[in-house]
Design goal:
It contains seven helices and no strands. With 201 residues, the chain is mainly alpha-helical.
């Protein structure tokens, strides 16, 4: 009963977050500026969404994917409280929460704000950011789906997918770490280049 209640609470929080994201997306569509159409090469309504200056243009997509993983984790937690017999559904729920939601959100937001906090630097590689997020997302998808199939005894071939998912996630986290360290080491510190002007009145 306690696990079921925790799963229902997590589901409620996930629905609240998802609702918040959809409302924010609708507000951003109404606040699109006319000049956006020329920059995107498409209709101006297609340009709605959070600004992506300094990061990959798919940044908003992966942020929304993180909230989707939170919803998946909550649904799996409810399902585990009802039908889990071997720990597979609980493990998939935890993985969707820790990797799908937390890790993807950290990789998205971290690569956007950490360079700015470290002397207004620019991210070293937006392509590496995209590659790392894709690897983690694909690896998490394989892990969550195959863990349920393997541990619950639905498909023996799913056991061979688990190591592949781990390697994909490890590669994605490594890409994130390389990108952050390269940003700190190779990118110039723009704050140090600014002149300090003192006026005496």
């Amino acid at each position: 009963m306690l696990r079921c209640s925790a799963g229902l609470a997590a589901l409620f929080l996930a629905l609240v977050f998802t609702r918040f994201q959809s409302c924010a997306a609708r507000r951003s569509r109404h606040s699109v500026q006319p000049g956006c159409a020329g920059q995107c090469g498409q209709s101006e309504w297609r340009c709605a969404g959070p600004p992506t200056r300094g990061v990959h243009r798919c940044f908003p997509f992966f942020v929304r994917m993180a909230y989707l993983w939170l919803l998946v984790a909550a649904l799996l937690a409810v399902g585990a409280a009802l039908w889990d017999s071997s720990g597979g559904i609980w493990g998939a729920s935890r993985h969707a929460l820790t990797v799908g939601f937390i890790a993807v959100m950290v990789m998205c937001v971290g690569q956007r704000i950490l360079p700015a906090f470290a002397g207004m630097r620019l991210l070293w590689s937006t392509r590496l950011m995209f590659a790392g997020l894709v690897l983690v997302t694909v690896g998490c998808t394989l892990r969550v789906s195959s863990e349920v199939l393997a541990y619950q005894g639905y498909a023996n071939w799913a056991w061979s997918v688990l190591p592949v998912s781990a390697l994909l996630e490890l590669a994605g986290i490594t890409a994130f770490a390389i990108n952050i360290f390269a940003t700190f080491i190779l990118e110039p510190n723009h704050v140090q280049k600014q002149l300090l002007v003192v006026t005496i009145t």
